[in-house]
């Protein structure tokens, strides 16, 4: 964790937002979608819609068109309107400040609730997204068949509570920019010795290099 912290000392939430409501919408939209795409969509979305009432003032089809660049845009648009209705009816238009209240909202799961609680309300939490899960399993922090919840609990036990939120961001940056799903930077990774998958990836390269040297020797001989 210290090494990852040194690699990404400025890790932070990359979803653009100005308040808890916007963050909740942004995280909801980010499911199976990149933060970069979400930020492009919300740049216009958050200018048009400021409050839950605004999302309910337009037909569902219009909201769908506003976010159609986002994956699963139809179900997400529907969840946004349902979520907005609950916020108005139950919370006077405000986002609930409890984990229990958040996960009751349509389209808001445990990961989204953890992101909102930690980034909007300053409550320490570790949200396990695809990057955090991948990195945790590659570095043997968790087992390959652990559930997302099991990964979260193991990280919570290993990391001091006051570092949960920072660790979440650092693991995301490490997974997003270094330990990528398809093209991880194993040759320059300072944590390669801890990663079985990384060491396995490096073996073919080592064999090819060794084979090339032998071929060169035979040719020169």
UniProtKB/TrEMBL annotation:
EC number: 4.2.99.18
InterPro entries on file: DNA_glycosylase, Endonuclease-III-like_CS2, Endonuclease3_FeS-loop_motif, HhH-GPD_domain, HhH_base_excis_C, HhH_motif, Nth
GO MF terms held by the record: 4 iron, 4 sulfur cluster binding; class I DNA-(apurinic or apyrimidinic site) endonuclease activity; DNA binding; DNA N-glycosylase activity; metal ion binding
Segments crossing the lipid bilayer: none
Alphabetical keyword list: 4Fe-4S, DNA damage, DNA repair, DNA-binding, Endonuclease, Glycosidase, Hydrolase, Iron, Iron-sulfur, Lyase, Metal-binding, Nuclease
Residues noted as binding [4Fe-4S] cluster in the record, renumbered to the chain: 179, 186, 189, 195
Cofactor annotation comment: Binds 1 [4Fe-4S] cluster.
Reaction equation(s) it catalyzes: 2'-deoxyribonucleotide-(2'-deoxyribose 5'-phosphate)-2'-deoxyribonucleotide-DNA = a 3'-end 2'-deoxyribonucleotide-(2,3-dehydro-2,3-deoxyribose 5'-phosphate)-DNA + a 5'-end 5'-phospho-2'-deoxyribonucleoside-DNA + H(+)
PROSITE patterns: ENDONUCLEASE_III_2 (PS01155)
CDD domains: ENDO3c (cd00056)
GO biological process: base-excision repair, AP site formation
Keyword Plastid: no
SMART domains: ENDO3c (SM00478), FES (SM00525)
UniProt cofactor(s): [4Fe-4S] cluster
Key word rRNA-binding present: no
HhH-GPD domain boundaries: 29-177
Lineage top rank: taxon: Bacteria
Start and end residues of each stretch annotated as Disordered: 202-221
Function per UniProt: DNA repair enzyme that has both DNA N-glycosylase activity and AP-lyase activity. The DNA N-glycosylase activity releases various damaged pyrimidines from DNA by cleaving the N-glycosidic bond, leaving an AP (apurinic/apyrimidinic) site. The AP-lyase activity cleaves the phosphodiester bond 3' to the AP site by a beta-elimination, leaving a 3'-terminal unsaturated sugar and a product with a terminal 5'-phosphate.
NCBIfam families, per the entry: nth
Protein name per Swiss-Prot or TrEMBL: Endonuclease III
Organism: Paenibacillus agaridevorans
Lineage: Bacteria, Bacillati, Bacillota, Bacilli, Bacillales
């Amino acid at each position: 964790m210290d090494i990852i912290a040194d690699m990404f000392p400025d890790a932070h939430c990359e979803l653009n937002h100005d308040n808890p409501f916007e963050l909740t919408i942004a995280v909801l939209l980010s499911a199976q979608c990149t933060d970069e795409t979400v930020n492009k969509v919300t740049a216009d979305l958050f200018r048009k819609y400021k409050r839950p009432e605004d999302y309910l003032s337009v037909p569902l089809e219009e909201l769908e068109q506003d976010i159609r660049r986002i994956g699963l845009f139809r179900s997400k648009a529907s969840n946004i309107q349902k979520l907005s209705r609950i916020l108005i009816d139950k919370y006077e238009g405000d986002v609930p400040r409890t984990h229990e209240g958040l996960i009751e909202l349509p389209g808001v799961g445990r990961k989204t609730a953890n992101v909102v609680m930690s980034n909007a309300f300053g409550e320490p939490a570790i949200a396990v997204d695809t990057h955090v899960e991948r990195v945790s399993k590659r570095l043997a922090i968790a087992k390959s068949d652990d559930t997302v919840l099991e990964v979260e609990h193991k990280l919570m036990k290993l990391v001091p509570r006051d570092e949960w939120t920072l660790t979440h961001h650092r693991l995301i940056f490490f997974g997003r920019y270094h330990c990528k799903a398809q093209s991880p930077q194993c040759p320059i990774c300072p944590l390669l010795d801890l990663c079985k998958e990384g060491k396995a990836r490096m073996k073919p390269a080592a064999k090819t290099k060794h084979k090339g040297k032998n071929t060169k020797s035979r040719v020169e001989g």
